[in-house]
Specification:
This protein is α+β, with helices and mostly antiparallel strands. The chain is 42% helix and 14% strand. A hairpin with a 3-residue loop joins strand 10 and strand 11. The longest helix has 45 residues. The N and C termini lie far apart (76 Å).
Length: 491
């Protein structure tokens, strides 16, 4: 390839050499020039590029350097924010394809990643109807180690990659999908029957890499995808998809808040132009359902963006007259709906009825005309005000704590004033034990006696008595250090 390549998975492949006479060249992401010497990788040169020497030695030890038809990559590094891990080197890429971290290709070749700890989680759910035995057998051919039931497919990887195609599996088998990797990639896909979601309506919100739609003959698939920085505190997944699937039912019933949140996520990831106007704002953004809250938490959708968007979102008011509306439906249509319920499609029937009823009884969402830049500015203003208010509350709380601590210490000194002689004797006893913990207690007690003396204008008397005590124990260096650190008199 004679170049370096960085893609969405933050892989850097650098300094790939042809056989002798064709120098490889590359520039790493940090700006350093990698080894461009002719010949096989690692041949007589440790390299000066970013951590390149790590791969040189391994490539050189691989043997057959410079063999005809052979190319070797000097370095393959994985970057996540400030963290960098060396993955390994690619050997014989001119011959057969090699597997590549996360799937995909680089210049038509697939690369083998090695040497870095990773975690990937795949979960699929069949919601509208269970998988047949034939379908489960087909899925088993994709993965021999996955957990497969009539409604669920789960697989985890610490090494290697999933052989299946999640998009194709969603089109053929499943209604919900979640992907999570410990380097920051997150994805959720939800599949709805085409009669449950109007394509033209959904397209107003989803037209980016972050929020996209896929059409099939019978379904629409909504995809939310981000490739963010790794989490500081990594917890292996469990239950996230189950917490989010109700949002699919809400969307099928005509609640467009999930689509608007998808658009906000794309805005947050700079995939919406500053002058683009927001799509119609649905009702209820100020009070999200538990499933929508799970979506917000999973993708880290900016709370200030949601709050300023909610300013143009009325509260949800379920229209009345539903029973009368259902009674007005033709008997043949109601019989057909009941047949679907009996066949196990109760959820779809409920969503269809609610969507139709709300469409006839409620006003559709309206666009406010705000631009993306205006939303960002409003969110920034809100964030600044919120942080300022939080800082003010923090300072007020600190002042209250300081006042309470001062009052408590004053009360403690008042009590100490009634037993000063006993306190001096107790300090001497603690020192005589020669125990570090008792040294600390004695120092604290003497510091309180000093504060009491300053309060009662008796500092000179305290100084004289303390210096006499200090002189008696001057050969105890750790005790002397404690006295000095506490600010007790030295002379």
């Amino acid at each position: 390839m004679r170049a370096c390549y960085a893609d969405g998975y933050r892989l850097l492949v650098a300094d790939v050499h042809d056989q002798g006479g064709h120098p490889g060249a590359g520039v790493d992401l940090g700006g350093g020039v990698l080894d461009g010497r002719p010949g096989a990788a690692g041949q007589g040169d440790p390299g000066t590029g970013f951590r390149q020497g790590l791969a040189h030695g391994e490539a050189q030890a691989a043997g057959a350097a410079g063999a005809a038809g052979d190319e070797r990559a000097d370095s393959v590094e994985y970057r996540c924010g400030l963290r960098v891990g060396r993955l390994g080197h690619a050997v014989d890429v001119t011959g057969k394809p090699q597997r590549y971290l996360g799937g995909g290709t680089l210049g038509g070749w697939r690369w083998e990643a090695a040497g870095m700890s990773e975690y990937q989680y795949y979960e699929f759910l069949a919601l509208d109807r269970p998988l047949t035995g034939k379908q489960r057998a087909e899925l088993r051919s994709i993965s021999t180690r996955a957990e497969i039931t009539a409604t669920r497919f789960v697989n985890e990887y610490q090494w290697g990659d999933f052989k299946g195609n999640p998009q194709k599996m969603m089109e053929r088998y499943f209604d919900a999908f979640l992907y999570l990797a410990n380097w920051g990639t997150r994805q959720v896909m939800l599949r709805l029957p085409r009669e449950m979601l109007d394509l033209e309506t959904a397209a107003q919100y989803c037209g980016t890499d972050t929020a996209s739609l896929t059409e099939t003959d019978s379904h629409l698939i909504l995809s939310l995808y981000v490739d963010r920085e790794p989490d500081d505190d990594w917890d292996e997944p469990g239950g996230q998809l189950a917490a989010m699937v109700q949002a699919r039912s809400e969307l099928a019933a005509g609640d467009l808040r999930l689509l608007y949140l998808a658009w906000l996520l794309a805005l947050q990831w700079d995939e919406v132009g500053d002058e683009d106007t927001e799509p119609p704002v649905p009702a209820g953004l100020g009070k999200l359902s538990a499933s929508l809250r799970a979506v917000v938490d999973f993708f880290g959708i900016d709370e200030d963006l949601i709050a300023v968007a909610a300013a143009s979102s009325p509260s949800i008011e379920e229209p009345g007259g539903r029973a009368e509306w259902i009674a007005s439906l033709p008997a043949a249509e109601k019989d057909a709906l009941l047949e679907r319920v009996a066949a196990g499609e109760g959820g779809q029937v409920q969503a269809q009825l609610l969507r139709r009823f709300r469409a006839t009884s409620s006003s559709p969402p309206t666009a406010s005309g705000r631009t993306a830049a205006e939303l960002w500015q409003a969110a920034d203003d809100r964030r600044t005000a919120r942080e300022k208010a939080a800082e003010q509350r923090r300072r007020q709380a600190e002042a209250r704590r300081a006042t309470a601590q001062a009052a408590a210490y004053a009360k403690h000194l008042d009590q100490l004033a009634t037993r000063t002689e006993a306190a001096w004797e107790r300090a001497a006893e603690l020192i005589e034990t020669r125990q570090p913990r008792d040294y600390d207690l004695a120092t604290s007690l003497l510091r309180d006696l000093q504060a009491l003396a300053e309060q009662e204008n008796g500092s000179a008397v305290f100084r004289k008595r303390f210096l006499a005590l200090r002189a008696r124990h001057q050969r105890k260096p750790s005790l002397m250090d404690r006295f000095d650190q506490a600010g007790l008199p030295r002379r």
